[in-house]
Design goal:
Order of helices and strands: HHHHHHHHHEEHHHEEEEEE
Strand content: 5-15%
Structural class: alpha+beta
Number of helices: 12
Number of domains: 2
Strand order of the largest sheet: 1-8-7-3-4
Oligomer: single chain
Largest sheet: 5 strands, mixed
Radius of gyration: 31 Å
Length: 442
């Protein structure tokens, strides 16, 4: 096949494909809608897990979820319009164009309808334009979101480099990260202004001169070179510019509507911290919903009829940070955290690896247990946690004896000793409170 885009044969092929592309559009749309709908549940699970572990996912997973909903809405509208277009073509086969003389309306209405409704062929042509542009805009929106994520990823990499890598001191790292973030945010705003104005900064002599270097750098950072032809082909005609202008306000409206919440009380909140007066299902293992994770601390159930109960604390990255700050002897010469291939474990294991690992676990647990203070009401309980891997989460589990505890309502309080890296002084930090009811099983 001749792929020379200047040849007449290639142009004829494109014209033919252009006329028949609606079949591929519907096929791809159907698969995309099915895939996106099935993707929502795993994303919801990832959001819950990232919130529980308080990792970076809690910032970008909700955006991915919003992107899925936007794509689903776009594609469903596309299917509806394309179905209407197919129906209009079928109706045209039966009755051709609109015959206003047969309708025999008054001249006033006939002239009005001819002006506003026009011919049936014009209506079909408008539907075709909307369908084709909406399908292209849907995937253009996907590329916009990818660009947003690349900028967000750059911020994360910068944070890891300036702060987490320990190459710089904490003060210097925060200063450098702040300066880098200001510059990146400033240039990102410039790119965004050019985007929402459909290229205004490219039109003037002095703005285009200053904007060109920024444009070249961000075209690589945001991967916009992948979809740039699609964008410029959309906005080079009046109809495409109208669509592009309404997209951003439309998505902002969708985002705002999705954030609405019916506040039913001046005092009671749906989402509040667990305390003596407020219960969160997240603090009880038997009340966890599907794809829900323990955020801070959890016990098996809120009504206990055994002389003991377990206390589960999920592992988080900041948990290890607290331990290493308080126990510098545990700090490794090189931080091994981060993405690692499973092959890394295979090649780093040696004779006596298990015994060495168990020795490290003992020291690690001793430091962890020394960091936590547990109380039932005002009675201090021993901190004797052990590492446990549940079906969902890695964490630490402690068994608390309830002998001597009276029947009725009680409160478990958990505090953690943390070291202020600036003042080098320890303080007791509140972690969680969990109410429960204890009744002996007679």
């Amino acid at each position: 096949m001749n792929n020379d885009y200047k040849s007449s044969k290639f142009k004829a092929l494109l014209d033919k494909l252009q006329q028949e592309s609606w079949q591929l559009e519907l096929l791809i749309t159907g698969f995309a809608i099915f895939g996106l709908i099935n993707l929502i549940e795993p994303i919801e699970a990832a959001i819950n897990e990232s919130k529980a572990l308080q990792n970076f996912g809690r910032f970008y997973y909700p955006v991915i979820r919003a992107a899925c909903y936007i794509l689903i809405i776009n594609l469903v509208i596309h299917v509806i319009l394309r179905g209407l277009w197919i129906g209009a073509i079928g109706l045209r086969y039966v009755s051709n164009d609109i015959d206003y003389d047969v309708l025999d309306y008054n001249k006033r209405f006939t002239n009005y309808l001819k002006n506003k409704v026009g011919s049936f062929d014009e209506y079909i042509a408008k539907l075709e334009n909307y369908c084709s542009i909406l399908f292209a805009v849907t995937f253009l929106t996907l590329f916009y979101l990818i660009s947003f994520f690349t900028i967000l990823f750059i911020f994360i990499i910068a944070g890891n480099f300036f702060i987490e890598s320990t190459i710089f001191s904490q003060t210097l790292g925060l200063t450098l990260l702040g300066l880098f973030s200001i510059f990146l945010l400033f240039f990102s705003i410039i790119i965004f202004i050019d985007f929402i104005t459909l290229g205004y900064l490219k039109k003037k002599e002095w703005t285009s001169f200053l904007y060109m270097p920024i444009y070249k750098v961000f075209s690589i950072l945001t991967l916009s070179f992948l979809y740039r032809p699609l964008l410029y082909n959309l906005i080079d005609n009046k109809f495409g510019r109208r669509i592009a202008f309404i997209l951003f306000p439309l998505y902002m409206c969708i985002f705002y509507i999705s954030s609405l919440n019916n506040v039913r009380s001046n005092y009671l909140e749906i989402d509040s911290y667990s305390s003596m007066n407020y219960i969160r299902n997240n603090n009880y293992l038997d009340l966890l919903q599907k794809n829900e994770f323990v955020k801070d601390v959890a016990i098996p159930t809120k009504i206990i009829n055994k002389p003991y109960t377990t206390l589960f604390i999920p592992f988080k990255k900041k948990t290890e940070d607290f331990i290493l700050n308080r126990n510098t002897s545990l700090k490794p010469s090189e931080d091994q955290r981060g993405l690692k291939s499973n092959l890394y474990k295979v090649f780093t294991k040696s004779k006596g690896y298990s015994a060495k690992k168990d020795s490290i676990y003992s020291k690690y647990l001793a430091a962890f247990n020394e960091s936590y203070k547990i109380e039932i009401d005002s009675l201090q309980m021993p901190s004797n946690f052990i590492i446990v891997k549940t079906n969902k989460q890695l964490g630490f589990e402690n068994i608390l004896s309830l002998k001597g505890i009276t029947e009725g309502k009680h409160l478990i309080s958990i505090h953690r000793k943390v070291l202020n890296t600036t003042t080098k002084k320890e303080k007791l930090e509140h972690v969680a409170q969990i109410p429960f009811w204890y009744y002996k099983n007679n």
